[in-house]
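Homework help board

Subject: predicted structure for assignment chain

Our instructor gave us this sequence and asked us to write out the predicted structure in token form, then describe one feature. I got the tokens but I'm not sure how to describe them. Can anyone check?
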Amino acid sequence: MEELTEEKRMERDRIESQIRTLQSRLDAPTSNIGDWKIIKIYEARLSGESDPYNFEELKASRQAVRDEINELQKQLEDTE
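My token output:
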């Protein structure tokens, strides 16, 4: 039983690490799908300029990451 608990802890740590990595893809200023690109699009639109990045592709990429995070969070709940 002790070994199973250790395995679950390790699995939780792995999943939590994956979630942090994916969240950083959304937040990081160096990420190709980071919040900063959304802000640049918003600024351009407010200024009446064209989008500096393809919004639909960016939106789809960011949603795919969010979907993966949601799936990992479900897996995390299952390890409890």
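Reply (TA_rk): Your tokens look well-formed. For the description, you could write something like this. The mean pLDDT is 93. That's the kind of observation they're looking for.
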